[in-house]
Amino acid sequence: MKKAINLNVNGVSHTDEVEPRMLLVHYLRDVLELTGTHVGCETSLCGACTVMFDGQAVKSCTVFAVQADGSSITTIEGLATNGELHPVQEGFWEKHGLQCGYCTPGMIVTAAQLLERNADPSREEICHGLEGNLCRCTGYQHIIEAVQYAAAKKAGHG
Amino acid sequence: MTENYVGRRVKRTEDPRLIRGLAHYVDDIALPNTLHVAFVRSYYAHAKINGIDTSAALAVPGVVAVYTGKDVADKIGPVPCAGALPDLKVPDHRVLAKNKVYFVGHPVVAIVAKDRYAARDAADLVVVDYEDLPAVTDVEAAAAGGPVIHDGFSDNIAYKLTSGEGDVDAAFAAADRTVKQRVLHKRLAPIAMEPRGVLARYYPGEQELTIWSSTQIPHLMRTQVAIMIGMPENKLRVITPEVGGGFGSKLNVYSEEALLGWISMQLGKPVKWIETRRENIQATIHGRGQVGDIEVAFKNDGTLLGLRYTVFADMGAYHQLLTPAIPTLTGLMLSGAYKIPAIQMNITACFTNKMATDAYRGAGRPEATYIVERALDLVALELGVDPTEVRRMNFPAANEFPFHTATGLDYDSGDYEAALNKAQQIIDYTSLREEQKKAREEGRLIGIGVSTYVEICALGPSQAMPAGGWESATVRIEPTGKVTVLTGASPHGQGQETSFAQIAADELGVDLNDVAVIHGDTGIVQYGIGTFGSRATAVGGTAVYVAIQKLKEKAHKIATHMLKADASRVSFEGGKYSRQAAAAASATGTSEPVVPVAEAPAAALPEPQTEGKTSLTIQEIALAAHIAKDLPPDTEPGLSATYFFEPKNFTFPFGTHICVVEIDRETGDIKFLRYVAVDDCGKVINPMLVDGQVHGGIVQSIGQAMYEEVVYDDSGQLLTGTLMDYAVPRASHVPDFELDRTETPSPVNPLGVKGVGEAGTIGATPAVVGAIVDALAPFGVKHMDMPIKPENVWRIISHG
Questions:
Q1: Which of A77, A98, A124 is the last residue of a domain?
Q2: Phi/psi at A93 (5° precision)
Q3: pTM score, two decimals?
Q4: What residues have CB less than 8 Å from B405, skipping those under 6 apart?
Q5: Cβ of B19 and A93 within 8 Å?
Q6: Contact assignment for A136 to B737 by CB distance below 8 Å
Q7: What span, in angstroms and rounded, lies between the C-alpha atoms of A7 and A31?
Q8: Are residues A41 and A95 in the same domain?
Q9: pLDDT tens-digit profile of B69-113?
């Protein structure tokens, strides 16, 4: 029995009928064709599927699409504004914070939300903030530097 | 004027699509009417299949087809193994289990449905009547006897092999001292963040099959899948879109790749399967899996005389592509960075009821480095000298290269002492040891671990490889002046779209942004071998470099003709062919601006303006070569060149890693104080990419040393089947690394590069373990097996 949902994704309003068991990540990827959000473990452990859900970084592989009814979602595709990269996106490019790129969208969304909570995080706070996101390529050091770059940029020192 | 790109930190051209979420991995490709595949996999390690009831599954709405092992047994050939060893037992490995299952995760039934939810629902409704059989899980027990896994074999031994040179028995007889240590290398899961995935589309009219797969080896996979499913290879196209990490786990040909292709041919529709993480840990290859004894013979002054490694290697239930070859790579690197006159390795490789082991980042070489470096630490302990001392005195000197080892290799170039000196200097080793002494007096547990590794890269000469060790490149300059590089390498995170463009831009004197590097599509790119074994830049990058030289020979000929000059008077510099004035120092011969390619009329090629010019850009020559109205006699139109580079030897990167840890006496918690890595990977194309490779490698090493272990229980049940149980390092687990380099060019290729993809995973593990062991030296600890967890440490501190 499908259920109607209405939500805002990257500033665009969507109304769709979905199966109650459809995962939010599948709704974003398969229905809205926003494939930048990835699935890495289906168990909330890797963070590749992280999206901004009403301002919170949330793992979309363990949220049903129906739970997102009435909410506002930002995915990696919605982070840049008017073609201008988000400071975290810029930081990842500048500091080589990605290699294969698969964890990157989730990592960037998590980091963006981290900086909204804490504009000037210490290295330890960055590491703690990224605990829920796994990267197998970079060894994290360049990711941490990317977040530091973004923090400085946002503070106007970039 | 163009800049020099090689050697500089150039930001990656790959990144804009990746950081914006606009790249396409396999699951991001959506074809109309795609069917989805889910697998029923064995939850027994070893069982007989007495029957399969698929009726309930077939009744699920949306289910289109169900296939069992019996349905495909005579349709799809065996999963290939490329290992060629004497008397190697190769089990008949089919894409779906037929009569028996041999490991947890063994695929038994494939369900095809209109959406992935329906396919998974149906998979749950398949009833398989299993008859449990005793599982073989311990590799040494498997060698000793007991139940035999595969029908038709007399035992579980896949092969036995003794390798090495020199008289090891004599070395041990002559030694002042010997040390012996049992060493475990636990099974590891590669955990590429993107699990495997396959999309196959068959066009019945054209009789063409396209397979998109998350693989490191598109061409090798195409050949093997063509053989497996009886498809003409020239009608099969393999595309690797964006690949989310491999680490060796996608250097393989898997059941699912052939099966999906075959299913698409049966149904005439696209079919897709995306591996779940649970499937990934069950049924994507594992790494390592060795249990061995290391013995070292040496003199009282520390001179090494001989080394013997007797090892049981866990193959798992079947051979995947390179399974049996991996322990032999361990054997090749047992000389480490040292002069050891006699070396022997005795391998007993056994089948067990587990997933196959195969190449995981380092592939046999981390085992070797770990063994040798642990052994050197034990020798130092035995002699009561600093671990750096016993290493330094056994290094071959910089002038002793090429250096022949008793494992049969010739190390290309090196200066091991320079890397050690640099690392010691950076960390201020002497003061560090003093601080450690002081700290110990205060009761603090600080440990220092040193690893002076060497690795074998740029795999490799074809003679030493199962299926070709060369790499290919085509470089062409299009009429508009844009440069296309087609590489047979298949990067999946290494950044070669950037580093190969750096090479091409420099060699052609063009802007980096004018170069596009294309890879991973057998329909477009000439045959290639792929990306693994730290080979892509050393072998594939060299192919690009040499192809460009060929292209430039032709361009030079055309330039000479167009400039109406003697060949000897036309030189190439900064992207331009210039006619040298007969008289000295005429600086007037400059070219007009490049043909304005961006504004070229769409309907026709612009005419090159060459009248009265004394120089032409290579891009202007490309245009002339395509218009072909005024070429030198007997010159083919177009401007492109292809080269297949066959290296004469491997390359041997090396370095020194020094790790400092402090252990919490109360909790056993291990904290990194410093980590210094001095790596020498030959000439560096892009230092930023090299740093990234080193960081990532070290962290995988830290994972092996402190966190990671695939655990099967005695019944062969997989206990670490999710990322909840299999611990991949997180950001808070790792230190800030202090990296530096020495640069010893390789003489094996004209770029002088060696390779760096696996350096971190090879060099770091012994440094980390060495540091922890050293911290626990006050408790008499000489060795600990990985992964070393706080619990193990706490037990030692608490109970002695």
A1: A77
A2: -70, -45
A3: 0.96
A4: B335, B340, B343, B411
A5: yes
A6: no
A7: 13
A8: no
A9: 999 999 999 999 998 898 999 999 999 999 999 999 999 999 999
Residue pair B616/B575 in contact by the 8 Å Cβ criterion: no
The predicted complex's ipTM stands at: 0.98
Angle, vertex CA B531, rays to CA B529 and CA B537, nearest 5: 100
Q: Is A101 left (phi over 0), alpha (psi -120 to 50) or beta?
A: left
CATH of B470-645, one of 3.40.50.360, 3.40.50.720, 3.30.365.10, 3.40.50.300: 3.30.365.10
Q: What pLDDT does residue B361 have?
A: 97
- Say if the Cβ atoms of A134 and B493 lie within 8 Å: no
Please count the structural domains in chain A: 2
* A33/A72 same-domain check: yes
Give the residue among B538, B541, B573, B543 at the shortest CA–CA distance from B559. B573
Count residue pairs from A and B with Cβ separation < 8 A: 175
Q: Under CATH, which number does the domain B287-460+649-799 receive?
A: 3.30.365.10
Question: How far does CA B557 lie from the centroid of its chain?
Answer: 40
Q: Name the CA dihedral angle for B258, B264, B266, B267, rounded to a multiple of 10 degrees.
A: 160
Cα(B510)–Cα(B594) distance, integer angstroms: 11
Assess if residue A10 is contained within a domain: yes
Give CA–CA dist B676/A60, Å, rounded: 38
Per-residue model confidence as pLDDT tens digits over B428-480: 999 999 999 999 999 999 999 999 999 999 987 998 888 799 999 999 999 99
Q: For domain B31-133+193-245+250-283, give its CATH number from 3.40.50.970, 3.30.230.10, 3.30.750.24, 3.90.1170.50.
A: 3.90.1170.50
Average pLDDT, chain B: 95
Nearest residue to B314 via CA among B263, B355, B369, B274: B355
What six digits make up the tokens of B441?
A: 């007096």
Which residue of A76, A93, A102 is in closest CB contact with B15?
A: A93
Tell me if B25 and A102 make a contact (CB, 8 A cut-off).
yes
Q: How many CB atoms lie within 10 A of CB B426?
A: 17
pLDDT in tens, B521-575: 999 999 999 999 999 999 999 999 999 999 999 999 999 999 999 999 999 999 9
Q: How confident is the model at residue B604 (pLDDT cuts 50, 70, 90)?
A: low
